[in-house]
Amino acid sequence: MTTLMLSLILPALVMAAAPRVDMVLTSGISANLKPRNNLSELPRAKGEFTVYLQWKNLPTRKKWLVLNDSDPVTYKVSIYDASGSMVSQEVEAFTPDESAPVTWVEHKIESGHRSGRWTVILEAFGKRQQKAIRIYD
Fold this sequence. Notes:
Elements: H1 3-9, E1 20-26, E2 41-43, E3 48-56, E4 60-63, E5 68-70, E6 73-80, E7 86-94, E8 102-108, E9 116-124, E10 127-136
Parallel strand pairs: 2-10
Antiparallel strand pairs: 1-3, 3-8, 4-5, 6-7, 6-9, 9-10
């Protein structure tokens, strides 16, 4: 290979494994940026929950000697109450600056939202991930 060919190939997308995200529904985030718990149900009186996202194997566009030039990651979190009504939708983007960054979306439970099985849908990297949480009175 010529030097010119190598200089064109090296800045190309470098990925060790497919990017993924771990989603946890939690009552909050600790000081060390970890979820406090992993909820499957929550009393309405608590008033809110957090969608915690830990990103792994994020792609980098250019790999240099010391630093990676990363592309922004865009994702969407949609939350539906027990009646199937969308109660929240957040579209967010961030530029990774470490190997396993975390992000989160907080949701306040409003009085008009119905109790029962709620659904949280995450869309990222062209894939959908879904979790359920039971909100009860």
